[in-house]
Amino acid sequence: MSLGLISDLVLVLLVLSLAVWMNIARTAYRAVVGFVAYGLLMTLIWVRLAAMDVAMTEAALGSGLTGILLFGAASRLAPFEAAERARAPGPALRLLIGLLCTVVAAGLGAVVLLLPEPAPTLAPLVAENLSPTGLQNPVTGVLLAHRAVDTLLESVVLLPALIGVWSVAADADWVGRPSALPRPPASEALTLLAQVLPPFGILVAIHLVWIGADEPGGKFQAAAVLAAMWVLVMMAGLRQPPPVVARGWRELLVVGASLFIAIGIAGIWLADAFLAYPEDLAKPLIIAIEVALTGSVAVFLALLLAGPPAGAHRREV
Amino acid sequence: MSNLTDLGGVVLVFPMMLPIVGLLLGLVLGGRYLGRLVLVLVLLGLAAALAIGAVVLVGGEALQYLLGDWSPPLGVRLEADGLSAVMLVTSAVVMLAVVLYGQRAFRIPGGESETRTSLVFWLLLLGVWGGLNTVFLGQDLFTLFVALELLTFSAVPLVALSGKPETLAAALRYLLFALVGSALYLLGAVLLYGSYGTLDIGLLAERIAGADRWPPSLIAAIALMTVGLLAKTALFPLHLWLPPAHAGAPPAASAILSALVVKASFFLVIRIWFDLMPGLLTTAGVQILGAMGAGAILVGNLVALRQVRLKLLIAYSTLAQIGYLFLLFPLAAGAEAAALTGGMLQVVSHACAKAAMFMAAGLIAAAIGHDRISGLGGIARALPVTVLAFGLAGLALLGLQPSGGYLTKTLLTSAADASGQWWWGLVMQAGGLLTAAYLFRVLGYAVFGARSGTPSGAERLPILIQAPGRLQEFVVLMLALCALLLGLLPPVAFDLLGVGRTGIDAGAVVSIAMASAFDWAKLWGDLWPVLIVGLLVLGAVPWPDRGSAIRTDSAGATPSVTGRAAVAVGVVFQRADGVLRHWPAAGLSLLLLLLGLAGSLVFGSR
Amino acid sequence: MNGTTLFGLGAAALVGLGLYGLICQPGALRKILAFNLIGSGIFLLFGVIAKRGGGALAAAGSGSDGDPVPQALVITGLVVAFAGTAIAVALLVRLAETAGRSTLDTDAQDASSLPADANPPGERLP
């Protein structure tokens, strides 16, 4: 057994035990702690799978931002947890469901072992068709050229999601500011962190977008970093989240997808197809879209975390 | 015709991007004129949908478009065959009705620039529409996944628009169950990519058909995707989220949710079983789908009959009507043309009829301040047009000539006869009679019932809190008439359904079904059981003259032995439904279905 | 057995564990966590498939040795899953604030306990 395989085995076992922990932990808060640790280990697995782009996204979004979201919810919901336990299904039902889930997992495992060899792949096709985009990073090529429509739809999906988060506000609170972010007690360390870290975060984000064309990195990773910086500033109380009725922020939200669509429509005349790029302009256009989407997605992610608008009375609590 | 196809392909981008552009524009504009903006967009969208339908029908073949000029497996393809075109037009028509209805319901009061409900409603309506159109056009399994999520994320907050705790719980339950559904669907798509190296439905179909046996990953993928989509369609017994969600939403949103949103995932089941892998239709899996459909028809209708509130009754009726859609799978083996045409006509007819019913119920509830069925007395005189629209939509649902429901029932019954599966026909007959029963129960109260709280013989008209808008009533009536008169369309219009697939001559089967529709014997044969049910129900409802203006809300006030037996049956079904709608029970059903479906494919015909 | 296959088996187990949690956990937040577990199992399986299909690009010397298509789709999927989690959390927190509970099943089931003034949730009287 090689060293690599042993480390992989340890990784998988750790991840699975954390997954079990998330199921058996007594409080949601502990389960969320397990989830964040799980996300970090998952990042390592993505590195082992040679998927650096995914590893970065997992670390920033899957573990980081989702972690903040769930921590906030877990602390707000803690008072209701005692009542939850009374509603757990009985042991016989749990056993039956556990048995069936095991069968499903075992079946999936068997399917994984029986996947066809040699594995089908689009990697050569992507490599062949990367040059018209002017990019070097194949993942960015797939995201912004070959399957641009998925990326476009996905940046649009964030919009109903944000409206959905806003929609739970009380009518009277609509003009208020969001207040769902956890507000740890003010401390000098946090304030200092929130003052020192963002400039670096912004530099990292710019770097990620810039290199994303050719190396692992890109808009989602950069946007997640930017969003994390802004959320840190809001959590430290240095800035208030903007009210949802603020026009300027709304314009920022739609600018990425709007530019994407505009360039896509221009492609109908300039490159014979919707979402196609004229060959000599492909790279600058793609970078323009990436930059605009980074800004919009960062605002989306941060506002999704900031939650629905709330009245002044609720913000105090 | 290929010239036409080349020229027309880019038109497919229009229905997909129009709602999305509207969504972006609407968020920035916000404010008072959002409703007008959406109205303009929907009119444009309807024109585009009709144009696509005309091009597909005249051209006689599916329209295709390669996004970004990349062909699959690398790129993503859009395609409009006959089914897509029919769905595009249907959703544009229902959207137009809902948008017209919503102009008044979501008007912003003077002095305010933007309200929560109006912004959320209009924007999410556009989100739903964009998701629907992308589902109907997309040919890439992952693009379809993102489209389904766009649809779900837009639909869920509409459920909780009122902000009441019950609707929040309903929305959360809907969201979580739908998320499981999409996760299972995505898992299936992932397995297909791992086995065939593409996500394009057309390429996958070629590669699957080329193999001489089904690999385990394919079987697992089909089972996972199908069950995931069924969870999103709320097919019995995976329906735990539907009744409270559809009943708790504002009427305009309920109309969209019931008429269109659940049909999107059904449409993808059709894509998988008919286009991706037609070989599935000869496996035992179709019997499982059919059995669930039959269960939905019986349980949905019986529980609808027991409902106290009008909107919940309509929601349970949706549950039952979804069941009819799944009868087409077992019936397609022997008579594909009749089964598929019947099933798709059910989609169209139910979309119009159910949207009309929900909006009519909304007008009634707005007028009298509640929607308790027993308190509907006299509403037929106060709101004659609304009640008429409700009744006509109901007649379309129970399948009287010349409605889409009639065509559905006739075509599916003929398919059942042709394939020697008479029992599905029996289920449909029973379903139709139960539909008649709850329809007459509502109409009975609306026409003859006493206004609660007044002694009999007193002033019969209820006090109206809010009179319905003329336009609103007109829209609801038009939609009901669309469903009721669907069969009168010229047969050539039905040919659209078969475009892009071989062996489906939808116009011909509809012509045959319509040829005998108005024979005296046929008409009478369809009518008398309905009339008998109607008389029985009218006899069972407590009327004011019997001195029971305020009685128990259920239909359980019947004195006769048969009446009590019927009530007992209803109670049993209602209890069973209540048990099945608990989360762990629904989860158990999900797992069992997953394993059962996979098993039926393993031991399938091949 | 190599590392990639091992990760594939782990992904299958994660889906199973997530399904169990989603069905059996009474609290809605725990269900949301379980949904994320299922999601990450599915993404991991996609990553395994990407790795299995890799190699061609490494041979061409362009850095990555996985199939870039699934990797790109996983990134999209992660963003969508985050959006879904955010809506679920918002609904849940609001539910707890207004109804004082964080579970989905009620004794009476919500359907029959919906208030009779169905009228017009979210719509205004003129």
Structure description:
The complex is a heterotrimer of chains A (317), B (606) and C (126). Chain A has 317 residues and is mainly α. Chain A is built from 13 helices and two strands. A two-stranded antiparallel sheet of chain A has the order 1-2. The longest helix of chain A is centred in the N-terminal third of the chain and has 26 residues, at 52-77. Chain B is mainly alpha-helical. Chain B has helices spanning 2-8, 13-29, 34-59, 82-105, 116-137, 141-159, 165-196, 201-210, 216-233, 242-248, 251-276, 285-305, 310-332, 336-368, 379-382, 384-398, 404-418, 422-448, 470-484, 491-494, 506-515, 520-540, 561-580, 583-602, and strands at residues 63-66, 77-80. Chain B has a two-stranded antiparallel sheet. In chain B, helix 12 (285-305) runs antiparallel to helix 13 (310-332). The model of chain B is unreliable at 1-5, 453-459 and 544-558 (pLDDT under 50). In chain C, 71% of the residues lie in helices and 0% in strands. The longest helix of chain C is centred in the middle third of the chain and has 32 residues, at 68-99. Chain C has five helices and no strands. With 126 residues, chain C is mainly α. Chain C is elongated, with a radius of gyration of 21 Å. Chains A and C meet through helix 1, helix 2, helix 3, helix 4 and helix 5 of A and helix 1, helix 2, helix 3 and helix 4 of C.
